[in-house]
Amino acid sequence: MFIRCLLPYCIAAVTIIEGIAVTDLYAESLADMMERCEKSVVRINTSGEEGSAIGSGYLIDDSGIFATNCHVLAGATSANAVFSDNSSYPILGTYVIDAKRDIVIAKINCSGIKALRLSNTLPRKGESVTAIGAPLGLDFTVTNGIVSAIRNADQMKESGGQVEGTWIQIDASLSPGNSGGPLINSQGEVVAMSTLASIGFQNLNFGISSIDILATIEKAKSMPLTPLSKGIAKIQPKSQLGEDIAVPPTAIAAYVEESRKNFDRLLSALKQDISREQETLREMNRGGTNLGYFDPQTDASVARFTERLSGEVRYMFRNEVAKTTAIDLQKRQLREMLDTYTLCRGGMTTKSLCEMLCKAGGDLDTRRSSTVGFVKAATCGVVVSEKIALIDYQERPYIANLHSTAGLYPGDRLLPSVFFVAGTQTLEVENRIPLTLTVLQQVDEQHIRKIAGSDITAPEPSMSSPLDGPATESSVFEPPASQDFGRLWTSRDGKFQVSAILLSSDGTSVKLRRTDNSQTISVPIKMLSESDQRYIAK
């Protein structure tokens, strides 16, 4: 009787144990899953008027229909798909080309190869994903990561992309050649297609979602097959960048007139800029030379960090040569600013106005197309060609059409210059989705001087300058008392700031005079920022 009562529980226990055993028996390891899935992935080789390129794709139907990126096949007059067993098939044509989602549904004649299954739901943040593709032409490479975020089209447009659909942000490593390959979840389903690898940033990559791909597949069912030469071959794979853009004289004239009206305000702003750049020079002199050890993947020669807790700014350089080069450039910039201020503080003349226009004019408003303005601080992100660079200005990316990119490297600061907002341009980077960004055209100083009424060239810096000397802490620029432009003093909590000149210090407090001479104030040293306290200690 006792055994009979326990029997149902024993059977249930056995069922559970058997269930675990069966699950373990049939569980597919990541290695097994990748071995199965890569049989459905292809390396795509293309050729066209712009040359040859490599991308990836994957079967979505057993009859030979596959998906890839629009930019992989763009401009291709011929292409073939190569499987992992080296079997190769010519790509016959396309059914659908969706450039804003970067999806192409295309066709090859193959049979006996099983297609991949697409997920009909979006992945969750934190889920594991695996990318299969041919990064840099290395066939059928697997990289693993997680879903970092789900982005809608509006969020992607804020970053400069002219796109539609839902995008899966991942931290898996993607490189040129991965484009068009599948992003696979732990169940072996395609959740997205590798599409956009970040420019200038590590581990920030995107794929168009399987929801968008499924919708595109539905459209393809009613579409005829279009040969490459009559369809996608007509899409330009590259933008024509690098040619100088004509700057209208009216835009320069408006810049001249605006600066003429605000000459005194610009002069006051220049004084504050000199103070800030002096502090930047001090920070650079204290900078370390172990950037490569700190971030071995970066291509930058210099990087600027802000301590999260203290707010202290730190510079790091790739090596001593990079540090010396950056400091010399900073000294040159400070020297030019000092020369400009010295000339302009005597009052506005044709000559001083020209110097102000070319060396310290009003800030560029990038939201106003066809306008001219001054860019004080911009950083190089990526050098694209001999004239084109992607730059960071006011924490946004721009295409900069420069006089020359010679000697410019990622992380380098651009010399302050006048730019024209030339509109927008679609930038094509090989095997990546097109990015539409605002284009800034560097303006020739002589054009500005001519319209302002003078062809006078900038004054040559003096042969002897307090900026000269080796890149050491002792070489930090300190202008003589008669040319003390003050500095921007900040409270310890960062809530209050004042532009003032240091008059004296007794060790516990400092006496400051506002740069406009309106007031003299006494401030306890302990209430000032750490940067200000270090300045006082020197």
What would you say this structure looks like, in words?
Helix content is 27%, strand content 30%. The chain has 538 residues and is of the alpha+beta class. It is elongated, with a radius of gyration of 30 Å.
SSE layout:
Blueprint: H1 2-26, H2 30-37, E1 41-48, E2 51-59, E3 65-68, H3 70-73, E4 76-82, E5 88-98, E6 103-108, E7 117-118, E8 128-133, E9 141-151, H4 153-158, E10 167-170, E11 182-184, E12 189-197, E13 205-209, H5 210-220, E14 226-227, H6 249-261, H7 263-285, H8 291-294, E15 302-306, E16 313-317, H9 320-344, H10 350-359, E17 372-375, E18 378-383, E19 388-393, E20 396-401, E21 417-427, E22 435-442, H11 445-452, E23 487-490, E24 497-505, E25 509-514, E26 520-524, H12 530-537
Parallel strand pairs: 7-12, 20-22
Antiparallel strand pairs: 1-2, 1-4, 2-3, 3-6, 4-5, 5-6, 5-14, 8-9, 8-11, 9-10, 10-13, 11-12, 12-13, 15-16, 17-21, 18-19, 19-20, 21-22, 23-24, 24-25, 25-26
CA-atom Rg in angstroms = 30 Å
**Which stretches of 5+ consecutive residues score pLDDT under 50?**
1-26, 198-202, 455-485
Main sheet record: 6 strands, antiparallel, barrel
Q: Largest beta sheet: what is the strand line-up?
A: 1-2-3-6-5-4
